[in-house]
Structures are given as C-alpha cells and as structure tokens.
C-alpha cells in the first residue's frame, strides 16, 4: 500500500505540475554552476580552515556576510546570534534555502593545505560545503534576479550540532510567510554526484541523556559495606535494551545506545561514590520517541533503586524531532535532480536513516524537503564517515548542490504554480480511491 500510494501521488503531482507555468532550463543552470565550481571550492576551503562550534561561528558568519555583500545581496544579521538570512527578489511566493554553518569539537586528522587552523575543531560533517553550496546558489540566483517572480530566502543557520539552531530561527519567525524550504547534506553513503531523498520521514528524532548514579563508596574488599553504583550502572545499561527489543514495534525504528560509562579517577580497589552514564535515544515515530524517553527515565530510576542507589537523569533540551519530507516538495526535488544529473543519478531512498538533523524543525513549520548529495569517491579519499577525524569530501560535486538549490528556488519563484495536497487528494478520490 505504501509503495503504491507514493507512486500514484507522485504521478499525479507530476501530471498537475506539467500543466502549469514555465519550464526550467536545467542545462543552463548546470552550466552556470559549473562555471562557479572553482569559486565554490575556494569558499569551502576558506571555511574549512576556520571551523567554529555552535553559536560561536563569528568568523564564519563574517565571511558569509562579506560574500553576500560582494554579491550585492541584502541580508539580516544577527538572527539567532550568528545566523544570517539573505534575500533575493521580492513579493510572493517565498521559498527558503538553508545551510548550516557550525563545526564539531573534533581534532582533524587529515593533512591538507586547508586543514583546520582552530585546534580541536573540525568541519567533520560537511557544513563548510553546505555553506559554500548555498553561496554558490545565491550567486546563480542573483544573476537571474530579474526573472524571479517571488522571493528566495538564504538561511545560513548556526548550531545544528546538538543546539537546535534551526528551532531558534523558526521561533524567531524566520519562516513566517515562507511557502517551502529546502536543505541539503553531503552524504558519504552515496556515490559522488548522486542525489537522494524520500517522502515522509527521512531522518530520526534524537536526544541524548546524561545520568549520574549515586551510591556509597567503599573498599573493594568489603562491598557489603557500600552501595555500589557500578553495579547499578551496569544494571541500567542492561535494563535499557528491552525498551527497543520488547517495547518497540518491530516495524518501527528506535535505537538506545549507551556510549559513556565513567567511574572517574581513583584506585582500582575502591568502589566509587558515583558513576556517570551517557548515551543517545533515537526513533522514527515522534509519539513512540517521547514514550521511550519517559520509559528510559523510569527504567534507570528503578534499576538504580534496586541496588540501593539513586540516579539523576537529564535529557538534551530540546530533543530533535524527526525530519519529515513533504511529498510534493520531494517531487520537485526529484524533477530538478533528474533534470540536472539524469535519472541514473537520482535515488529514491527506501528507508530513513537513524541519523538526526535539526532541519526537522523547519520542515515541521512549513512544507520542506531534505536532500542528500553523494560524496563517496575512493580516488580522492572521500570514504570516511561523518563526525570522524579523517572525514573528507569530494569537492567535484559542490556545483551540483548549488545548481539543485537554484533550480528548486526557480521552480517556486519564476511563475510556476505549486500543487497543493487538497488537489492531489481530490484527484485520487475522483479515481475512486476512498482509502485515503
């Protein structure tokens, strides 16, 4: 049913789209983007040298503002501390293109001429590339500004990594009046130059927990005189696992990973007073995700109590909600991707990933689509995963990201009418499908 539903709705959206507005000259967009490739790469490398973590993107923000100013693009700053919102065109409709700017607290382990100059920080998730690609799209769209019948917002977002910069921008009204939003992420799991997305949930909800188990320390030879928090912490690790294996629908997706267990410094014959436990919890269903948070807190509390200890559990606030793509937006992405790189380099993702993204807050606020751009290329060393100290990316694809952003924006603001789901549902009912 799900596959049939997607195929039918996609076909109807495509048919209705084809009856409206002007066609997009994808070859022209792609050629223009190719002409900017060296410029985009230079920007990416400049940003790669100055990685800054969430809400501290001072140099990065200044670089983006300087570049926008040189292109004579109006912008607002500060938005959510270090964020920037550029604007091209005027009037309605309004479409937003988003890139995240922050880096990770990772020491880079790759020798490159443009290696990080900020010790302990690294662009290990490709946000330097995301920012460079959006600036490339900005330059393309600025050159076409006279043909725009609407407004393109360029959202340069801070603090994606754990601090929910997207939610801060949404709460500040950045998407007020926006018709649609698009985000792009480089993806090592796809071959270079391949675009991929899917309708519905594409990325998981996620949160992190930190638990302090408190007992009473003592001598390792006399454990009966202590209340051992190590035993309690071990019980917590074990007790969390059935929440996925026995309390989660096998057709749903959830993960609880305990990734930190620390007794602190001290002699090995001493039972500590406290043990720290940390990890992450992820889920594809928002309802079950929040239920798991409640149950995990309950399980940790009872497991500690069973061993005469207490536990204080804190969760990251806010948790990241699932990233859910809008069907018609994904249809637009698919059309644009195929127009730019051909059908053989478009991939419909069969399943979501359990990785998380704060773009979900934007896609919850307005119809949105999040797209992956493949960067896996052994010949240039682009084989390592995101969030690793040896992460590299295939820069040859950067112009493709700029082209996709620009093509999608043009679909919305060059006189092309968008389809609404009421029209789609009505058409399905006319076909006699009363299941929807």
From TrEMBL:
Peptidase M20 dimerisation domain residues: 207-304
Highest taxon above the source species: Eukaryota
Source species of the chain: Coccomyxa viridis
InterPro entries, per database record: Amidohydrolase, Bact_exopeptidase_dim_dom, Peptidase_M20, Peptidase_M20_dimer
Keywords: Signal
Protein's name according to its UniProt entry: G11900 protein
Gene3D superfamilies: 3.30.70.360, Zn peptidases
Signal peptide: 1-21
Pfam family, one: M20_dimer
Name of the encoding gene: g11900
């Amino acid at each position: 049913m799900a596959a049939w539903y997607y195929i039918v709705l996609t076909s109807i959206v495509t048919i209705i789209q084809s009856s409206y507005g002007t066609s997009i000259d994808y070859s022209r967009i792609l050629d223009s983007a190719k002409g900017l490739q060296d410029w985009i790469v230079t920007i990416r490398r400049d940003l790669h040298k100055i990685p800054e973590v969430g809400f501290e993107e001072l140099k990065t923000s200044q670089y983006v503002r300087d570049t926008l100013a040189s292109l004579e693009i109006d912008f607002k700053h500060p938005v959510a501390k270090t964020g920037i919102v550029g604007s091209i065109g005027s009037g309605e409709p309004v479409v937003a293109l988003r890139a995240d700017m922050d880096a990770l607290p990772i020491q880079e382990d790759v020798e490159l001429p443009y290696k990080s100059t900020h010790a302990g920080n690294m662009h290990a998730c490709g946000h330097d590339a995301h920012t460079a690609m959006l600036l490339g799209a900005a330059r393309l769209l600025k050159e076409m500004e006279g043909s725009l019948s609407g407004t393109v917002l360029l959202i340069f977002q801070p603090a994606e990594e754990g601090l929910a910069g997207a939610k801060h921008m949404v709460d500040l009204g950045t998407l007020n009046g926006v018709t649609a939003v698009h985000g792009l992420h480089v993806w090592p799991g796809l071959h270079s130059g391949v675009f991929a997305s899917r309708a519905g949930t594409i990325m998981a909800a996620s949160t992190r927990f930190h638990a302090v188990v408190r007992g009473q320390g003592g001598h390792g030879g006399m454990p009966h005189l202590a209340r051992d928090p190590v035993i309690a912490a071990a019980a917590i690790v074990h007790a969390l696992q059935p929440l996925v294996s026995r309390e989660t629908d096998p057709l749903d997706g959830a993960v609880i990973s305990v990734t930190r267990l620390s007794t602190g410094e001290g002699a090995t014959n001493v039972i500590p007073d406290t043990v720290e436990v940390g990890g992450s919890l992820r889920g594809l269903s928002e309802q079950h995700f929040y239920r798991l948070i409640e149950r995990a807190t309950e399980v940790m509390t009872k497991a500690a109590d069973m061993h005469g200890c207490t536990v204080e559990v804190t969760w990251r606030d806010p948790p990241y909600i699932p990233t859910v793509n809008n069907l018609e937006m994904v249809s637009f992405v698919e059309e644009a991707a195929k127009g730019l790189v051909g059908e053989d380099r478009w991939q419909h993702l069969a399943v979501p990933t359990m990785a998380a993204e704060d773009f979900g807050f934007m896609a919850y606020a307005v119809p949105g689509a999040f797209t992956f751009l493949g960067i896996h290329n052994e010949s240039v060393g682009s084989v390592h995963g995101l969030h690793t100290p040896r992460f590299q990316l295939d820069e040859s694809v950067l112009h493709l990201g700029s082209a996709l952003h620009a093509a999608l924006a043009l679909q919305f603001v060059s006189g092309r009418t968008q389809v609404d789901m009421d029209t789609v549902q009505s058409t399905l009912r006319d076909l006699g499908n009363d299941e929807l």
